[in-house]
Amino acid sequence: MEELASVSGISRPTISKYFNEPGSVRPSTRAKIEAALELHDYRPNIYAMNQNRKLTKNVGVVVPLLSDPYFAEIARNLEQHCIAAGYRPTLFSSHGDPALEVEVLDTLRSLKPAGVLLAPLGRASDRAALEKFCDDVPTLIFDSSVDEIGLAFVGSDNFQFTAHITDYLCRTSEPPCFFEMKTPANPNAHRRRQSYLDAMESFGYTPDVVSIAGEGWGFEEIGRLGGHEAFENGRFSTNSILCSNDRLAIGLLTACYERGIRVGRTEDCRIRVAGQDGHPHSRYTCPPLTTISHNYEAVSQTAADALFTAIEGQVSPWKSTRLEGKLILRDSA
Amino acid sequence: MEELASVSGISRPTISKYFNEPGSVRPSTRAKIEAALELHDYRPNIYAMNQNRKLTKNVGVVVPLLSDPYFAEIARNLEQHCIAAGYRPTLFSSHGDPALEVEVLDTLRSLKPAGVLLAPLGRASDRAALEKFCDDVPTLIFDSSVDEIGLAFVGSDNFQFTAHITDYLCRTSEPPCFFEMKTPANPNAHRRRQSYLDAMESFGYTPDVVSIAGEGWGFEEIGRLGGHEAFENGRFSTNSILCSNDRLAIGLLTACYERGIRVGRTEDCRIRVAGQDGHPHSRYTCPPLTTISHNYEAVSQTAADALFTAIEGQVSPWKSTRLEGKLILRDSA
DNA sequence: CTAATTTTTTTACGCGCGTAAAACTTTGAT
DNA sequence: ATCAAAGTTTTACGCGCGTAAAAAAATTAG
Q1: Strand D: which positions are within 7 A of a protein CB?
Q2: At A165, which helix (H) or strand (E)?
Q3: Which positions in chain B touch A107 (Cβ < 8 Å)?
Q4: Beta-carbon count within 10 A of B182 CB
Q5: Is the CB of B262 under 7 A from strand D?
Q6: Is residue A58 scored above 80 in pLDDT?
Q7: pLDDT tens sequence across A149-169
Q8: Strand A88-93 and strand A58-63: pairing?
Q9: For residue A109, what is the nearest residue in chain B, using CA coordinates?
Q10: CA distance A70 to chain B (A)
Q11: Is B42 within 8 Å of chain A by CB?
């Protein structure tokens, strides 16, 4: 930086100021600096930079499970928004493990991030650890809400999701049963069940929740095994099955295939299956899965913007933003 | 650190040494430090740490596309190995974009990593940029090889992959045609095609390569559209189709479904379809996809170990390690 | 027990930058 | 042209640690 100063004829502190905020120096000064930058390709040392800065430009992005394409997609979007806003995103995955989630938070602390975009594991999360972290670091919670912690919450409106797709299913054939995990990892699952119950009641139908056993994040396998068991015991009371999420639905479709049960909305099909999430893979199941999709772009945009305004000084009370999903009609229901 | 020194009764430089390598101090000293650490939960400032260290403990992990569960899985494994070996992994994705890949490399440079585990985009990669990066930073290339750059290459043996599954298909029914993208992003695709040609020749069969159009990383959609076109023009000369990779196969299966073509190895099925990669989703296609799986664990273990030995001073000539895959027999072929 | 060796302490410097304060210069408005 | 405001330079310090060198202490070998 010293060299760049002598080459450009600008003092080092001014150059430091330039790197902090290029707009904060006079245009003529900025031009001189950028001209010198062209010739000498200097890169500031990020370690020295961040050592004395009160606030780094780092942003942590934490998702529960990166190998789930849904989270991978959200993470990709968030990453781009951070870069566009001049922040340096770093990606972390809890890999479905609460202990790892705490470790990630610990690692994040030492990065002294300006802010964090955090999708918690949910039920399994260490609440106390999350809360403590949110006290120390400006954190925006997304995807699944855990109390009213952090700066704000941004996610999908699970009530709208399930109400909407339940409504569709009721209007087009028999009212659906609801296929879910007994002990879901994600708190959104409870909202979806409740929304299903409410919607069924408002239509005057008797709800039927089929809860299946299974722990962990291998939802497809849980759905497949649970599906087999449910069929064997005749637990599906109607021809329509609304799954709590797409991955469960994918497993259920495999179970149907293995049992020779035709799925779809045509006359020759025994049942209909619908999912929820708009999973990237849902287009390629057989039959293609009817589902209700997150507004990926809007969720990540809103979440990122909310974090940045908070970082940049805007204090606002805790707020929950829940965005509506869009029904995607395909052959499965 | 100063405080910790006074509390533990050990001098600051010795504590610094401890954090650099806990085993380098006398056991009694180490015990004292760790006892003090229990009480005062001090965390070294990573920025100050890395500023003067010749070598940081950072390791970059770069994959071409994180939303592809195959890469997500590899990345997860690599991450764990890094942590286990005492390094701090940071995950990056090129998101299928060569320009982003160069940007990632640039970001990585400023992290001054001890080493990098890099899976290049392949054909689209900026060779010159990759080579220059490898000159500056100890880099191990994995998954897809680009010349003989970096410390070494670790990946799967694509020749063995395709030879093995071609052999299986030939022995069990009609010899397969080969379904692939005309201009594949990944260099492994060329190896697989060549291996198919060699295998077919060694059996005395006439190979039949069906190359379909399509750019980018949306393999499923490319496979689906290409499949439709191939069926319409009668381009499949036998009842068996070996796909260049699983994602293409998933798309092809969807095309089959849409055309009402039954896939499987039973009498009533018109064709058989097989993939390659052992994609996490291949178990849940309809029918479940016969494929040949990467040895994920071995590839990542070998890659990580190779990088660490190189970092820790072992100089060895460039080497290519290619691990064999395992045939996974399912209903599709 | 003494000498040789290893480990630790003391002392001291510097990494590359952020940042503060005061003096100075440029710019824009009157 | 004159003055105030904004931007810039100079000077100086410190962040939290790594690291080097020399002195001191602890351990081991003989």
Answers
A1: 7-12, 14-21, 27
A2: helix A158-172
A3: 88
A4: 13
A5: no
A6: yes
A7: 999 999 999 999 999 999 999
A8: parallel
A9: B43
A10: 8
A11: no
